[in-house]
Automatic annotation (TrEMBL), chain A:
Protein name: Putative ABC transport system ATP-binding protein
Lineage: Bacteria, Pseudomonadati, Bacteroidota, Flavobacteriia, Flavobacteriales
Cellular component terms (Gene Ontology): membrane protein complex
Source organism superkingdom: Bacteria
Keyword Nucleotide-binding: yes
GO molecular function term, any single one: ATP binding
InterPro entries referenced in this protein's UniProt entry, alphabetically: AAA+_ATPase, ABC_transporter-like_ATP-bd, ABC_transporter-like_CS, MacB-like_ATP-bd, P-loop_NTPase
SUPFAM superfamilies the record matches: P-loop containing nucleoside triphosphate hydrolases
Sorted UniProt keywords: ATP-binding, Nucleotide-binding, Translocase, Transport
Domain spans labelled ABC transporter: 2-233
Pfam families on file: ABC_tran (PF00005)
Cross-referenced SMART domains: AAA (SM00382)
Family the UniProt entry places it in: Belongs to the ABC transporter superfamily. Macrolide exporter (TC 3.A.1.122) family.
UniProtKB/TrEMBL annotation, chain B:
Assigned keywords, A-Z: Cell membrane, Membrane, Transmembrane, Transmembrane helix
Name by which UniProt lists this protein: Putative ABC transport system permease protein
Residue ranges annotated for the ABC3 transporter permease C-terminal domain, each copy included: 285-402
UniProt lineage: Bacteria, Pseudomonadati, Bacteroidota, Flavobacteriia, Flavobacteriales
Location in the cell: Cell membrane
Family: Belongs to the ABC-4 integral membrane protein family.
């Protein structure tokens, strides 16, 4: 599903540059659920951004589902993001003047789907996260957990191969966090490949594999026994 | 390529962010409002100028006589120069091919009465050509004609206001007007764009006046219009020639400025047309200045809007929006806001001009307003302005990196 080889990335800071990723090698198979852990500055978010094609590596190979991701034009990157990837963010990143349904339908709009079909599909995915009744509500009328569920529905709407989550529970209390994690685990059970950045040990333990980053290199890469979030809800 | 979903997106964005849309719309509306009002007032000023000079034909030359101020060829200073019929005929024959219309004038002042109503009026004894020189418009009946001159008939042509004053609500045509004790038949009623004063005048045939008042052949003034095909320099040369010939005829010194006075309207006309050109130029500068200020204003606001929407644009890009679709959204939104707000400004401006227009007449602003051409031109300019104002911010927006836009802050 995902092959990364000797990935380097540095950011210019004034005259010098900050070497953030110092040769990352990572392979992720179909159906895996991987947590990327590390203290702040370890490069975990940068890695996720490169995987998400929101940022580009300086050197190294990145192959997504057999497709080399390199020197993409903005347009091509947009098409790939739309087709292959679903994003879940810490701060939800819903568009505040669009209601839940419209937010979920947005990636489908960029796929060029017809309005009616789009709305049906968006409503279906909202139903999957249990928010059918909240379809016409604006983000500000929803709780944090509900917002993140809308964001998950949006990430799923375009039926992506890979789900990327950047601290998906970072802004939520622990009960809600477990609720969201239960959803994500359920998606993984259904076969979705999931890559998640977190710095919370208990959240990481709800994944099937933990990759620990420190100062831009992978320190540790281990498979773990998944803790089911459902047990904590 | 009409994409209904794109328009839906744009209208939602405008509609859901009303304050923002209204604010940017206000700038444009205000700029266009100012532009329209300025343009309208300037047009009004121009109308006033134009009107001030429509009273008389602007290719007219007026010839007056006075007392000599210099002794010449054995004549003493202070000799009164008096034009007579033969002088009128001389000018007419001598410059025949250069003259368009020619008339003499004798000025009188009489008490006019009809039944119980009476008033004092300026009376001008004239030739038939006077009608064209003075741009008199006949409302009823006819003007003085050659037949009147030949027969010295006692007929008058009176101004609209004379009819109002003396004949009250009845028609004057065909009735007899008592003019200084003599009955004259009213054969025509006229109007004149020169204002109320011009419409309180009475015209009688020049020969009748000479016969009735003194039985002489004196004339007070000779007025003519030259062939309109003469250019400015030729027109000035023509009036100089007339002056020279008449001074010779009356043995008046070349340098005598009082005895024969020839006034050529071309001089004034040139000054007025130059003034109009200057005024138009000022209008254009002010108008386009205002428009440019409006464009800069909306461009600034669009840049601000793009900044405010950075996060939203980042989200859209992460979800698969192409740079082109981001440009379209911002650009079309800018154009729509500019066009609608501009049109509102235009309508308000036109409305204001319509409303206060009539009350501005005493400030030398007549019929302020903007033409259809200007309205269409301004609308097109607005759409182009919206595109220009929106393009740079839109381009900027499309280059936003989603990673920066989505950074948690």
């Amino acid at each position: 599903m995902l092959k990364i080889h000797q990935l380097h990335k540095s950011y210019p800071i004034g005259d010098s540059s900050l070497h953030v990723l110092k040769g990352i090698d990572l392979n992720v198979e179909d159906g895996e659920m991987v947590a990327i852990m590390g203290s702040s500055g370890s490069g975990k978010s940068t890695l996720l951004n490169i995987i998400g094609m929101l940022d580009e590596a300086d050197s190294g190979d990145y192959i997504l589902d057999g497709l080399p991701i390199k020197n993409l034009t903005e347009k091509k990157a947009a098409v790939y993001r739309n087709k292959f990837l679903g994003f879940i963010f810490q701060s939800f990143n819903l568009i505040n003047y669009k209601n839940a349904l419209e937010n979920v339908a947005l990636p489908l709009y960029y796929q060029g789907m017809k309005r009616k079909e789009r709305q049906e599909k968006a409503l279906f995915h909202l139903g999957k996260v249990g928010l059918t009744d909240w379809a016409k509500h604006l983000p500000k009328e929803l709780s944090g957990g509900q917002k993140q569920r809308v964001a998950i529905a949006r990430a799923l709407a375009a039926n992506p191969k890979l789900l990327l989550a950047d601290e998906p529970t970072g802004a939520l209390d622990s009960a809600t966090s477990h609720e969201i994690m239960a959803f994500i685990q359920q998606l993984n059970d259904e076969g979705k490949t999931i890559l998640m950045v977190t710095h919370e040990e208990d959240i990481a333990n709800m994944c099937k594999r933990i990759v620990r980053l420190k100062d831009g290199v992978i320190m540790e890469d281990e498979k773990v026994n998944q803790v089911r979030a459902q047990e904590h809800v | 390529m009409f994409d209904i979903d794109l328009w839906r997106e744009i209208f939602q964005s405008i509609n859901k962010n009303r304050t923002r849309s209204l604010l940017s719309g206000f700038t444009v509306a205000f700029a266009i409002l100012l532009f329209t009002i300025l343009f309208g007032i300037a047009n009004g000023l121009q109308n006033t100028f134009a009107e001030a000079f429509v009273d008389d034909a602007n290719n007219a030359i007026f010839i007056n006589s006075g007392r000599t101020t210099k002794a010449h060829k054995g004549n003493q200073v202070g000799r009164q120069i008096q034009f007579k019929n033969e002088d009128f005929d001389y000018v007419k024959d001598e410059f025949d091919e250069k003259i368009e219309f020619i008339t003499a004038r004798i000025y009188k002042n009489f008490q006019a009465s009809f039944r119980g109503e009476q008033n004092v009026y300026d009376v001008r004894a004239v030739h038939p050509d006077h009608q064209f020189l003075e741009k008199t418009k006949i409302k009823e009946g006819r003007y003085i004609n050659q037949n009147d001159l030949n027969n010295k008939t006692k007929v008058v042509v009176i101004g609209r206001l004379v009819e109002d004053d003396l004949f009250l609500k009845t028609t004057a045509l065909g009735k007899y007007l008592n003019l200084g004790g003599i009955q004259f038949k009213v054969v025509g009623i006229f109007t004149d764009d020169g204002g109320d004063n011009e419409e309180r005048k009475i015209y009688i045939p020049v020969s009748t006046a000479q016969y009735l008042y003194g039985n002489n052949d004196y004339l007070d003034q000779i007025n003519l219009t030259y062939n309109p095909e003469l250019n400015y320099d030729q027109a000035l040369a023509f009036s100089t020639l007339i002056t020279k010939k008449l001074k010779n005829r009356f043995s008046v010194a070349r340098s005598d400025q009082r005895a024969i006075r020839v006034r050529n309207m071309a001089e004034g006309t040139k000054a007025v047309s130059q003034m109009t050109v200057g005024l138009t130029f000022i209008i254009l500068v002010i108008g386009f200045g205002t428009l440019i200020a409006g464009i800069v204003g909306i461009s600034n606001i669009m840049i601000f809007i793009v900044k405010e929407r950075t996060k939203e644009i980042g989200i859209r890009k992460a979800l698969g929006a192409s740079p082109k679709s981001i440009v379209s959204i911002i650009l079309i939104e800018s154009i729509i806001i500019t066009a609608i707000a501009g049109y509102v400004g235009l309508l308000i401006g036109v409305g204001v001009l319509e409303l206060v227009g009539p009350s501005l007449k005493e400030y030398f602003i007549k019929d302020p307003g903007v033409g259809n051409g200007l309205v269409i031109g301004a609308t097109l300019t607005l759409i182009i302005a919206g595109a220009i104002a929106g393009y740079i911010p839109a381009k900027k927006a499309s280059q936003i990196k989603p990673i920066i836009a989505l950074r948690n802050d």
